[in-house]
Design brief:
alpha+beta, OB fold (Dihydrolipoamide Acetyltransferase, E2P), 2 domains, five-stranded mixed barrel, three-stranded antiparallel β-sheet, 7 helices, binds zinc ion
């Protein structure tokens, strides 16, 4: 019998399995995204309480299952269930987006502590600051960086010149910023303002971005996401604020 171990995790998804059990998808600090079976979670609320609710930050006791990649969830104890976030519809929508992205961007069983930290910090920001869409965008930018899809925004990716002039262009196909001289006129590039560029270089600041800049940022990030996953995202359902 394999030994059980304790993981720190965020609950991403849960669904019923048979009469009494539930399958839980979670992102752990130690082992990345995993799926587990919680025996009796559907039949008895007492066993796990609210610890397996979506968004909950938990200490979870799991045991490996030799026959499948599903682990057995033996115990779960909530560290925080983000009570303020849960009372606000707009925050719930944004948080749902963070969970869905974490589920799609990270393969099962690939450990990536930075992905866990990014999700936890973003949920804490929603809890403390309320439903600000910039939290969703900075979460995405950080994930792109973790996945190696980082947007090279400080210097021109062709000539290395610093991008501190009033006009900048972003070439999605190349995943980087280009200066005026190096941009290829036949290719679609995004023109970025200096303030948006500064925000993207330091997205965790609590400074807001203008509605026009946000439209541009969303389009750019959607293109970048589609470029890597060959799938156009539908983020508007998380952004109705
Ligand atoms: Zn250049």
């Amino acid at each position: 019998m394999s030994e059980s171990e304790s993981l720190e995790a965020i609950i991403l998804r849960r669904w019923d399995y048979g009469e009494k059990d539930q399958i839980i998808s979670f992102l752990s600090r130690e082992k990345g995204r995993l799926q587990g079976i919680a025996k009796g979670a559907k039949a008895s609320l007492k066993r796990f309480g609210p610890a397996l609710d979506l968004f909950t930050w938990v200490k979870i006791q799991v045991r490996e299952n030799k026959n499948t990649s599903l682990v057995f969830i033996e115990q779960a104890q909530a560290l925080s269930n983000f009570p303020r976030l849960r009372q606000d519809y707009a925050s719930i929508l944004l948080a749902s987006g963070l969970l869905e992205l974490s589920h799609h961007l990270y393969k099962e069983g690939v450990a990536e502590e930075a992905a866990f930290t990014n999700l936890l910090e973003s949920l804490k920001r929603l809890e403390e600051q309320g439903a600000h869409r910039r939290i969703f965008w900075s979460f995405l930018l950080k994930n792109f960086e973790i996945l190696g899809w980082g947007l090279h925004l400080q210097t021109c990716f062709k000539c290395g010149k610093s991008l501190n002039e009033p006009f900048h262009f972003f070439d999605v196909e190349q995943g980087g910023g280009v200066c005026e001289e190096c941009r290829v006129s036949s290719r679609k590039v995004f023109s970025l303002s200096l303030s948006l560029l500064e925000w993207m270089n330091n997205p965790y600041q609590d400074k807001s971005i203008s509605p026009e800049e946000e439209v541009l940022l969303q389009e750019l990030l959607e293109k970048q996401y589609a470029h890597h996953l060959h799938l156009l995202p539908d983020w508007n359902r998380f952004l109705r604020i």
